[in-house]
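so i finally got all the pieces together for this one. its two components total, 587 residues if u count the protein bits. some of the lines might not be protein, just check the labels. i wanna see the whole assembly predicted at once instead of chain by chain like last time, that was a mess tbh
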Amino acid sequence: MTLSTEQVAHVAMLARLGLSDEEMERYREQLDAILAHVDRLQQVDTSQVAETAQIGGLVNAWREDVTGECLPKEAALRNAPRRVGDHFEVGAIQE
Amino acid sequence: MSELTTAGLSVTAMAGLLRSGQASPQDLAAASRGELDRIEGLHAVLRRTGELAERQAARAARLLAETPEAAGPLCGIPFAHKDVICLEGVGTSAGSKILESFVPPYTATALQRLLDAGAVPLAVTNCDEFAMGSSNENSAYGPVGNPWDPDRVPGGSSGGSATVVAAGAVPFALGSDTGGSIRQPASFCGVAGFKPTYGRVSRYGLIAFASSLDQIGPFARTVEDAAGVYSAIAGHDPHDSTSSPAAVEPVAAELRRGVQGMRLGIPREYMGEGLEPGVRQAVEAAFAQLEKLGATLVEVSLPTTDAALSTYYIIAPAECSANLARMDGVRFGLHVDRASLTDTYLQSRDQGFGPEVKRRIMLGTYALSSGYYDAYYRKAQKVRTLIAAEFDSAFETVDALVCPTSPVVAFEKGAKSDPLSMYLCDVLTIPVNLAGLPGISVPCGVSAGLPVGLQVIGPRFQDGRVLRVAHAYEQATDWHSRLPGPVPGVTA
């Protein structure tokens, strides 16, 4: 299994990581090595096995649909790098 | 009280000083601060809590004076916590540049419960960036020195928390464990480190790495202290829907029941070729000690063990790639201003994250991407089921498992530059997270002057049983009472 540079660039874009060419090549090599190791998984017979996502045995955690205490607006905004009044400022996503 | 020295004192010993009037919470905080100054050269602490500690110590003093019967065993006891657990008003950066300026607007439930119990938070400890690492060398703020040999790593990712307890600066500290990040540094530093059953301690306010694996737990100088901290932080939390609603069993009484008549299993696969001879020797001596205390030791097999690392290195990166998507430079954290929003994301994340975090985000994003999901992520989740089932069936014949915590002792800084060789450090702790089990590491000897850890693993929600075995072993030995010497290059 060998990853192509295009595949690595595609994954970096999915992950929104603006990697340099040098980083791209390094991760290509390292991910190759890790994926070769991880191939061990394919040798395990899981034909009769269901997936586990929640190991504690919980299924659903319900609560009453009532308004409770929540983070005050000012506290939620305190760490914002950019804000306008009571809002987070986000760059334009459409021209 | 300027003569007061608290180096290496346990929670229980400090509580004794408070109850007998020999020290106030402020005295203990001041003395522990002095101890933290003494080990500053190890770089285990990223920041102090400032006047919050003063306020909390004063509050503890009032509680002890006015309602001593209502003040619990942690009231007035100083501690430290890992830089991934949010404390309102005190910087929490997850060892990352991307959160360098982040000040949490709320406090994690586990920390809040300690504050409510009157404990005094003194310091935020260094760790691998976003808790990803086994040596603390992935911290964006520089590595931590092992108190037994500062040229060696303290383990990771909770290396700072392990170090401050091992050096005797504070009697306990909180860490988090996703693949061994409490137990492995506890082993490398020679202290007790306990990862509770998944879901026992609320993850609310814990900066998420891999949500199906993460668990907060204590480092302490004794198992009894670890049990006390666990009792204070465990229990259901409506803020964390994965926290268990089942009542927490009282562990204090169970702790003292000993191991007489217990059946303890040694997983054959955990005693394989990769063990350093000194680790094998120390752990086998611990097995003999447990037999002397009346336990029966038998060999068991967990055949899918060799696939656990692969399973983990799909599931944990997959979850981290999703969790860390929130680091977008919009609501908090590093913001690199660019003309388009996409470029802002790309540059904020590229400049904010370190190499290991990027590597895991890349790996996880790949495993979750279209066309690879079934082959990697779904497959890993199925193997996870098998690994958990093998533990469950082992626990039908034995009460608990005993084995090494790490196949090696603390290694030198810079010794493991290849990511895979670093991942292999956690080969004996990772399966426990995959199966959601409670596990503890306690000191059980030394190899070439460096601590070795014995790991005790129990069935889900049998946290008390794990603590009981570890306590019985610890009380019969004195490895836990050793303190490292002065830190070289650091004047007292």
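The longest helix of chain A spans residues 21-38.
The radius of gyration of chain A is 22 Å.
anyway lmk what u think
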